[in-house]
Amino acid sequence: MDFSLDERAEAFRAEVREFLRAHLTDEVRARVAASGTYHDWEFHRAIAAKGWIGAAWPVEDGGQGRDRADMDILYEEMAAAGAPVEGMSVTLIIAETLRRAGTPEQRERILGPVREGRLLLSLGYTEPDAGSDLASARTRAVRDGDGWRITGQKNFTTHAHEADYVFLLARTDPQARKHAGLTMFLVPTSAEGFSLAPVHTLSGERTNLTFYEDVYVPDTARVGAVGQGWEIVSLALAFERGGEFAAQLRRLVHATVTWAHAAGREGDPRLLRRLGRAVTATEVSRLLGSRATWLRTTERAGAVEGAMAKVYATEALVRWTGELLDATGERGLLNPGTRDAPAGGELQHLYREAQISTLYGGTSEVLRGVVAERHLGLPRSRRGSGGS
């Protein structure tokens, strides 16, 4: 299988890099660092002006009809540069789902503003005490005339303080079996009874707790049929990317090389062995992600392969950020921006980011269960994978 890119794709890579040089300014980086929010409206609207939000959508849906390889390049270069695109990434997961499962009214209301960089969406899946077992959701939605009353709490609702809607998984039939009694809703963050509280993570990123106290939404907020929530979540999970952490590894290698040159450690054999293995892990991660992307263009959704790519890349990121940060010695403890911090503190920051990477999009334990059941045909774990 050949994942090498043609001249057209490499020209697009050059265009993305030129965009980053022009728009990923020190001011943007400073705002992101101060807020802990990996989204910046000025930068986001600049991406929209290029037509790159939803660029892989068909032209009739307002996209540019770009192929998945182009989108891999876009995300890879943005992640490798440390650009604040998590808000865009999450929004596009939900928008891709609405393109397939939303009503005509929802698509008209949501997709245009998303493409134009005017609207942000947030995921409302995880709940207290449920972890990655999304089907254990206890946030409830009860019929009220032509609408629904929603009550409950969600954890890790990242970007909810910037978003217009939360893509919310709620239990609509408490008597149904675990996976059958769930329904998806688009809940406006402007709705009465909605509130949030910030949570600051080890990496410095801000996420949120979100609270729903008798929040009323009309039935037009429902996505899919009543009781179809698990199918909608599974569809959305298929659009979570498998190879983006390869770019984080690439960023790690670059930061280490930068530090090694500055410290005069280019010839250190122990460091070179670690770097060589990290480079190998980066390339394996990239190829696994490319395979998942390619399969998404076929009849297979590529969700299992995406799970494989995600588990490998995030665990490699945890290992090699630790190994390479350790190589810098005690100065590696210095925070970003501190004088004498190796690579300006980039290694230390990547180490902190890596510790929570194995939680995004399902923990490694859950995703291993998905691979075991759906790829290897093994029986479901007694503890459950949360995904079947």
* Proportion of residues in β-strands: 5-15%
Q: What is the CATH superfamily classification of the largest domain?
A: Butyryl-CoA Dehydrogenase, subunit A, domain 3
Number of domains as seen in the coordinates: 3
What's the main sheet like? 4 strands, mixed
| CATH topological fold name of the largest domain | Butyryl-CoA Dehydrogenase, subunit A, domain 3
Low-confidence stretches: 383-388
Helix-strand topology string: HHHHHHEEEEEEEEHHHHHH
Residue share in helix: 40-55%
Whole-angstrom Rg: 21 Å
Structural class: alpha+beta
Verbal overview:
The chain is of the alpha+beta class. The chain has 3 domains: 7-84, Acyl-CoA dehydrogenase/oxidase, N-terminal domain (Butyryl-Coa Dehydrogenase, subunit A, domain 1); 123-227, Butyryl-CoA Dehydrogenase, subunit A, domain 2, CATH 2.40.110.10; 240-374, Butyryl-CoA Dehydrogenase, subunit A, domain 3 (Up-down Bundle), CATH 1.20.140.10. The protein is built from 12 helices and 8 strands. It has helices at residues 7-23, 26-35, 41-49, 68-81, 86-101, 104-115, 229-238, 244-263, 269-295, 303-327, 346-357, 364-374; strands at 121-124, 140-144, 147-154, 165-171, 182-188, 194-200, 206-218, 222-223. The strands form 2 sheets. A 4-stranded mixed β-sheet has the order 1-4-5-8. The chain has a 4-stranded antiparallel β-sheet with strand order 2-3-7-6, with no helix packed on it. Strand 2 and strand 3 (147-154) form a beta hairpin. Helix 4 (68-81) runs parallel beside helix 8, helix 5 (86-101) packs antiparallel against helix 6 and helix 10 (303-327) packs antiparallel against helix 12 (364-374). It is globular and about 70 Å long. Mean pLDDT is 91; it is low at 383-388.
